[in-house]
């Protein structure tokens, strides 16, 4: 698992080569404010090889936040990430490793009959109750998430996952009311608190697509304050002195800035954006889609682009995301070693200050 000593030694490797705020804190660990996402790429051996080299290049270049999920590329991403970390010159305890569970994963490739596969491999074997599935392929039930923690530990080949996310819980809102989703989350948080106590994970969180950045009347809205309350209750139930809910993940980039611009969460003084809400609640924020899966690289609006530091559109796009209030690390997915190095070099430039960032939206 990531440790304070190893991550701070990792930070010191880069000395003055990075800008002042490039490394930030998660608990007592130092983490890079540019992270590597592993969602992209076909489930092929060629992409496996490319991703392997990309992870190793990123770790060498100053990216020690690696984000994946059990379903990414049909479990192949987790397996490659684990192998690349083991083979890297960077020690495991200098790497902040995050993964997720929620979507039912295929194994290596998409089966010819996905529904039959889910029934045979997951429902019939008791891994998940069919009644807990949304869209036939998603569950946040405690027993299922527990099983996915085990699978991710095995895929990654690690003893401890630093941050384990419940993946896109808003998917469940298509099948059941919000009250039931919060109940499921609380029960699952209890299980995750137990996994923390057992040493299998260090922190847990919630990774979302829409849930935290849409208005309260949206079909996929979830109340972050309620989720925090349920996590505190879960910790109390299992006898932990404090919750280990540590982070959220939300999409955020120059073209998708709702996490900052939409006052979707009810704060103590009125509605506020999820970025501000999470920051004031003491949660770390990891941004997904920080480059919009390539859209940002194709061009940034000139009025914004001129405010950002960086030699390339990718660097300026990453610097936009990591300039937002409360953001710990901006995740950018790639299977190209040169691209991850380019993204890491964004950290040699200062991000926008708070006033300059606010001015973009005025």
UniProtKB/TrEMBL annotation:
<dbReference type="InterPro" id="IPR023210">
    <property type="entry name" value="NADP_OxRdtase_dom"/>
</dbReference>
<dbReference type="Pfam" id="PF00248">
    <property type="entry name" value="Aldo_ket_red"/>
</dbReference>
<protein>
    <submittedName>
        <fullName>Probable oxidoreductase (Aldo-keto reductasefamily protein)</fullName>
        <ecNumber>1.1.1.-</ecNumber>
    </submittedName>
</protein>
<dbReference type="GO" id="GO:0004032">
    <property type="term" value="F:aldose reductase (NADPH) activity"/>
</dbReference>
<dbReference type="InterPro" id="IPR036812">
    <property type="entry name" value="NAD(P)_OxRdtase_dom_sf"/>
</dbReference>
<dbReference type="InterPro" id="IPR053135">
    <property type="entry name" value="AKR2_Oxidoreductase"/>
</dbReference>
<keyword id="KW-0560">Oxidoreductase</keyword>
<feature type="domain" description="NADP-dependent oxidoreductase">
    <location>
        <begin position="34"/>
        <end position="211"/>
    </location>
</feature>
<dbReference type="GO" id="GO:0005829">
    <property type="term" value="C:cytosol"/>
</dbReference>
């Amino acid at each position: 698992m990531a440790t304070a000593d190893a991550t701070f030694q990792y930070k010191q490797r880069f000395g003055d080569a990075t800008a002042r705020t490039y490394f930030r804190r998660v608990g007592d660990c130092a983490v890079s404010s540019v992270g590597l996402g592993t969602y992209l790429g076909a489930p092929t051996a060629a992409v496996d090889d490319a991703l392997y080299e990309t992870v190793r290049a990123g770790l060498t270049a100053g990216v020690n936040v690696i984000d994946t999920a059990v379903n990414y590329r049909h479990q192949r991403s987790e397996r490659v990430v684990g192998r690349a970390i083991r083979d890297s010159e960077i020690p495991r305890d200098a790497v902040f490793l995050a993964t997720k569970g929620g979507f039912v994963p295929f194994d290596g490739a998409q089966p010819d009959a996905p529904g039959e596969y889910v029934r045979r491999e997951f429902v019939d074997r008791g891994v998940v109750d069919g009644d807990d599935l949304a869209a036939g392929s998603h569950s946040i039930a405690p027993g299922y998430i527990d099983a996915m923690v085990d699978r991710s530990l095995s895929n990654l080949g690690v003893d401890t996952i630093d941050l384990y996310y419940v993946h896109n819980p808003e998917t469940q809102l298509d099948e059941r009311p919000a009250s039931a989703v919060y109940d499921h989350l609380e029960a699952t948080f209890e299980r995750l608190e137990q996994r923390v106590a057992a040493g299998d994970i260090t922190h847990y969180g919630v990774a979302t697509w829409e849930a935290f950045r849409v208005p309260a009347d949206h079909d996929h809205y979830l109340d972050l304050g309620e989720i925090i309350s349920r996590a505190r209750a879960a910790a109390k139930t299992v006898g932990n002195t404090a919750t280990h809910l540590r982070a959220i993940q939300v999409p955020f980039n120059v073209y998708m800035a709702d996490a900052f611009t939409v006052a979707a969460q009810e704060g103590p003084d009125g509605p506020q954006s999820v970025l501000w809400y999470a920051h004031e609640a003491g949660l770390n924020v990891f941004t997904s889609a920080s480059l919009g899966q390539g859209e940002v690289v194709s061009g940034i609006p000139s009025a914004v682009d001129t405010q950002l530091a960086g030699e390339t559109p990718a660097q300026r796009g990453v610097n936009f995301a990591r300039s937002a209030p409360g953001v710990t690390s901006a995740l950018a997915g790639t299977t190209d070693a040169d691209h991850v190095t380019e993204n890491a070099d964004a950290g040699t430039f200062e991000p926008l200050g708070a006033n300059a960032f606010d001015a973009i939206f005025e």
